[in-house]
């Protein structure tokens, strides 16, 4: 078991960009892991007017990435689908990635 301090020292997960912000069919949030690989189970994306997105039981390998698509689709290890009928990340939105303990790991302001 790791303590929160150990986790903070090794986890370096960042949101790098939102592709197609405000356009439902294209909107995709890119999340990169630049540190040790964490489980994202019960992590959350917050900041959307559509509500929070809670991650399923998925592992983000060191050096890996996940694409979060706003539209409906079938989740894979590298692509998660939020299942929304409207865009979630319009320009000016502040998105937070929060771990299972409620600690903010990364934030991103959509340009």
Give structural notes.
With 111 residues, the chain is mainly β. Helix content is 6%, strand content 33%. The protein contains one helix and eight strands. The strands form two sheets. Strands 1-2-5-6 form a four-stranded mixed β-sheet, with no helix packed on it. The longest helix has 7 residues, at 4-10.
Average the pLDDT over all residues and give the rounded result.
Answer: 92
- Given as residue ranges, the uncertain stretches (5+ residues, pLDDT < 50) are 1-7
DSSP strand (E) fraction? 25-35%
Main beta sheet:
4 strands, mixed
| Tally of separate helices | 1
Compute the number of strand runs.
8
Given the helix and strand composition, which structural class is it?
A: mainly beta
N to C succession of SSEs: HEEEEEEEE
Which percent bin holds the helix content?
Answer: under 10%
Terminal CA distance reads 38 Å
Give me the side-by-side strand order of the main sheet: 1-2-5-6
Radius of gyration: 13 Å
Principal-axis shape: globular
Summary keywords:
disordered N terminus; 111 residues; 1 helix; 4-stranded antiparallel sheet; single chain; 4-stranded mixed sheet; 6% helix; mainly beta
SSE topology:
Elements: H1 4-10, E1 13-19, E2 28-33, E3 44-46, E4 53-54, E5 65-69, E6 79-81, E7 94-98, E8 104-109
Parallel strand pairs: 5-6
Antiparallel strand pairs: 1-2, 2-5, 3-4, 3-7, 7-8
Would you kindly provide a brief summary of this structure?
Helices cover 6% and strands 33% of the residues. With 111 residues, it is mainly β.
């Amino acid at each position: 078991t790791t303590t929160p301090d150990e986790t903070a020292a090794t986890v370096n997960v960042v949101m790098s960009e939102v592709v197609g912000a405000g356009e439902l069919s294209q909107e995709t949030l890119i999340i990169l892991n630049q540190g040790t690989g964490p489980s994202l189970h019960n992590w959350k994306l917050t900041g959307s007017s559509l509500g929070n997105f809670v991650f399923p039981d998925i592992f983000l390998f060191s050096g890996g990435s996940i694409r979060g698509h706003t539209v409906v689709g079938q989740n894979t290890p590298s692509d998660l689908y939020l299942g929304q009928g409207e865009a979630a990340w319009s320009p000016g939105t502040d998105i937070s990635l929060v771990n299972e303990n409620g600690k903010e790991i990364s934030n991103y302001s959509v340009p």
